[in-house]
Structure formats: C-alpha cells, structure tokens
Amino acid sequence: MSSTLAAGLSPVRQPLDNGAVVIVQETSATPAVSINAAFLAGSLYEPDDLPGLAHLTARVIDRGTTRRSAEVIAGELDERGVSLRIATTRHVMTFSSTCLAEDFADVLDIIVDVARCPTFPEAELSKRRAESITAIRQDDDNPAVQAVETLSEMLYGPSHPYGRRAKGSADSLERITRDAVWRFHTRYVRPAVLSLVIVGDVAPQQAVDLAAQRLEGWSGAPKRPIVVPPPHVGARRRVRDVRMAGKSQTDIAYGFTTISRLDPRYYAYWMMNNILGQFGLGGRLADNIRERQGMAYYAFSSFDPTVGEGPLVIRAGVDPNNVQRTLDAIDDEVRKLGEDGPTPAEVEETRGYLVGSIPRLLETNYSIAVFLQSCEQFNLGLDYDRRLPALIQAVTREEISAAAREALHPERAAVAIAGPDPGTGSEP
Predict the structure, then answer these.
(1) pLDDT per position as a tens digit, 283-297
(2) What's the CATH code of the domain at 108?
(3) Rounded to two decimals, what is the model's pTM?
C-alpha cells in the first residue's frame, strides 16, 4: 500500500440522512478502488421455516433490476473487466467489487442499482434455486462440510440462527417463492442498515458526494437492535457420527461456544486460540497430531466471535483408522492448555506474530475495506488499526490462562465425525 498509510488509516466516516454510513479511505498505491457495501441482511433475519432465504436472495438479486436486465449488468461489468461478488453470512449481505478509479462512479451505480432495485425474475429464481440445491447436494457429499455443519447444529441447536444451515435445505429452497424473496429484500436490504466502504484512488469528499447521490431517495425502516439468542451450553460431551460410505478421509469438527466479539476477554481468547491451533503450521494441535504423530492431513483451530457467542472449532482431516487416536490427541492438547495455560515463550511468540500480522490485514484496497467493515459493524473506532497493537501487547499470560480454563473442557466438547464408518459410539 501507499506510504501514506505508514502512520495508519485515516478514513472519513459520513452518515447520510437515510441512515446509511459511508466510509472512505483514500490510497494512491494503484489507480483502483474497492467498494464494499454491507447490509444487515444475513441468515439471522430469515423466518425459521425458510432457512436459505438470505442465501437464495443474494444468488438472484443481480439477475435484473428495474433499469438493467441481467445481460446488461453482466455486459457493463465485463466492459470494465470487473466482477460483482455478492455473499451472505449469518449477519450481513455484502456486495463488493474492485475497479479502476476511472470506472468507480459507474461500478458504484451498478452496485447500488442491484441492491436497491432488483426485480427477481421468476425464471432466474428457478435457475438459481436449482443451482443452490445442487450445491447443497455437493455439500452433503463433502465430509468436511458435513462435520462443520453438524457441529454447528450440536453447539447451537437446529433452530438457532447459528445452528441451522446457511444455505438451507433442498426442501426449504423449494418452498421459497418469489414473494418471499421480495419481502425479505424489502424488509432487510435498506439504507438504515447499510455501511458502504470505499477504499482507493478517490478523494473522500468526492466518494461521499457520489454515494449520497446514488442513495438519494432510498428510505426504509430505521435500524433496530440486533438480538441473538444465547446458545445452549452442553454440560456433557456429545459425539455424533455422520456415516458417508465410499470416502477415503474422515473429517473431525470438535468445539465449544465461547464469547461475543465485544466481550473484553476477546484478545485473550484470540491469543489462546492462536497458541492452540494457529501459530506456525497449526499451533499445539498440528505439532502433536500432524508433525509428531503423522495422523492428520490437516489440524487447526479457529475462533469466530461475532455479535452473538461464537464458536471455537478444532478441525482435523484423518485416515479413518486414526479417528480415535486423533480424538485422544485433541483431548490431550485441549486439557493441557485448559489446565496448565500457555508457556511464557508461547505467549510472546504469539504476541509477536499477531502484532506482526496487522500490516497484512491492510495490504490491499479490498482487505482494508473488509477491515473497515468489521470496525463499523462492531463499533471499534476509526483508529482501531493504530490501537490494536497495544491491545494485544496488554494481554497477560494470566488472562490467556483464564480464557483457556473457561473454554477448554474435553468433557463438555461437542464432536462431529464425518466419514466412512467412524464407529466411535455416537448419539443416536
């Protein structure tokens, strides 16, 4: 990135009258601009009886607007050599694109048009529904996906927004009508829940003025508080086998529910997870399971706190004959870190690694836009990139040990095993 970012980001944040927030970070390393528009319209907001509605809405939203047909949208993007990526998470629906600075106004116009004025043609909805059902069936045949989705259901329950499948099921997608898609879009894709981040070779005031013009006249309900129900915390260990005949590998997903992103213990949990399953080739887990014992194709842990209480998930891909040995090794590493905490060397190595990785979060216009979206979503402040090193430096070994004691209990773990005849004594 440009040397102008050496002292940190300096974004401009401008709320608009309709509730939308525009955030602009000027960079000059390349004559390009990244646009990232995020609406609070993820799967959290779906009706309980229509899982997959947000995902399907995102799949069909760019297939025509009141001003442009699907072919015109594709043609205008292709002329500029860019693509429009639309994705959903539990909380947001995101529209993103990176273009040349000279095409910024035109690409922003396309993005706002697609988000604001989709027509959801019935034929396109049917096509995208069929594609999504095919993708679900492919997921059903993927041990890694099955292990993770089964674990999420075990941790949160099938009716919890973090526990149900984000893509829905073939049955639920078949029941999603054009009217349901239209109503979901009308209710949730609205300016009051939009954060529009623009990063690149464009003057901040010019970008804000252009965004205000494109969003003018668009209104909707005001922003409401986000409510995520608490997960059901299991008091005992739960193991579930997903038998998948004909597979050569077994995938294990092993985890716990933890804390929300805004919990003050976040930084201690982040460092604890890095020690457990991230540092180097995969922390303690990979060192034991993959390097020393040679049992796993991969082994790592991930920590995904969000608005609600997020999961800490340990994953491993192993030979089916090594499932029980791998589980024993995971239990051992989880128990040791939970009971004994990290070593002083592990704490300092992790601290150095995480502080050193901050510049990599800000290497490209796109990654800066993603970073600023996270800052906006969690109200972390426009100077968060400059404060983050000190927040990591302030974490003590005792705080990391406390996080490990709170979270890591093998006797309370939920374990999902997907592969050929796991045979570990599972739930019915």
Answers:
(1) 999 989 988 888 888
(2) 3.30.830.10
(3) 0.93
